[in-house]
Design a protein that fits this description.
single chain; alpha+beta; Jelly Rolls; 2 domains; five-stranded antiparallel sheet; 16% helix; AL/BT2_dom; plasmid; signal; DUF1080 domain-containing protein
């Protein structure tokens, strides 16, 4: 009798073990199904990014200085008069004391490419680095410094590629006098509410000759000079200003992609 009972119990336990194994397998399959998501469920198909070609410049960019015709088409002096700077050999050179120039078009968020060259110091203009002093004032306010500081000792928040008097470049990537430099700038304009109160400060990233030198820096206001800062005042999209600071800087290949 005892033997028969034991055999029955053993058979029952064997069946239960098999059922447990089946149940475990089913649970494993269910868990795997729940956690191994079909890749198609995470595929995004729209909107399709617009195709942009990149040579000679991005096809969605605004060419501000590629040829002599661009000078009168896209630029003017602050007083509204035609540009007096000198265009030759594919570049536009500051005519000292003629005045700064501004783009005829206004910009907000943008990607900007600009190339500039400082002349070599000459016997006539030995006052380096001021023989090659200029600047890019985005929205006529926020200045990326242009200055021939190659081999020159100067306050670091005023050297080439600084956000003037606000942020020193992370590294010095300046080319020697007489050679071309490139700035690639990503600028996010400040935002203001309906009452003119700043809600989001401007931010800027700068690559100098392909090297990151300003990394998403939060601009503190307009150019700081002699310790005084003019802080944000409400404004809309505004032109780009290229500065005449009595330096014979040359410019070429300027283009902007509004973002």
């Amino acid at each position: 009798m005892t033997t028969t009972i034991n055999k029955t119990i053993n058979k029952t336990m064997t069946k239960l073990n098999k059922l447990a194994l089946v149940a475990t397998s089913l649970l494993s399959i269910t868990y795997a199904t729940a956690n191994n998501i079909d890749p198609k469920l995470t595929e995004v198909w729209e909107p399709v990014p617009k195709k942009v070609t990149v040579k000679p410049i991005p096809s969605d960019a605004i060419s501000l200085l590629q040829s002599a015709s661009d000078v009168d088409k896209h630029w003017r002096h602050l007083n509204g008069k035609p540009v007096e700077w000198i265009y030759e050999n594919g570049s536009l050179t500051v005519k000292p004391k003629s005045g700064s120039i501004v783009s005829k078009q206004s910009f907000c968020d943008m990607q900007m490419h600009i190339e500039w060259r400082a002349p070599k110091p000459s016997e006539r203009r030995k006052n380096a680095p001021n023989h090659a002093n200029s600047g890019i004032k985005i929205q006529e306010r926020y200045e990326v410094q242009i200055l021939d500081t190659y081999g020159q000792k100067i306050y670091v928040n005023g050297q080439a590629a600084s956000i003037y008097k606000q942020s020193s470049p992370l590294v010095d990537a300046l080319s020697p006098s007489g050679e071309w430099n490139t700035y690639d700038i990503i600028f996010k304009a400040p935002k203001f509410d309906q009452h003119g109160k700043l809600t989001k400060a401007a931010r800027i990233t700068v690559l100098h000759n392909g090297v990151l030198v300003q990394d998403d820096f939060e601009i503190q206001g307009t150019t700081m000079y002699k310790g005084k800062a003019e802080y944000f005042k409400a404004h809309s999209c505004t032109p780009i200003l290229l500065q005449d600071h009595d330096g014979e800087i040359s410019f070429r290949n300027i283009w902007v992609r509004p973002l």
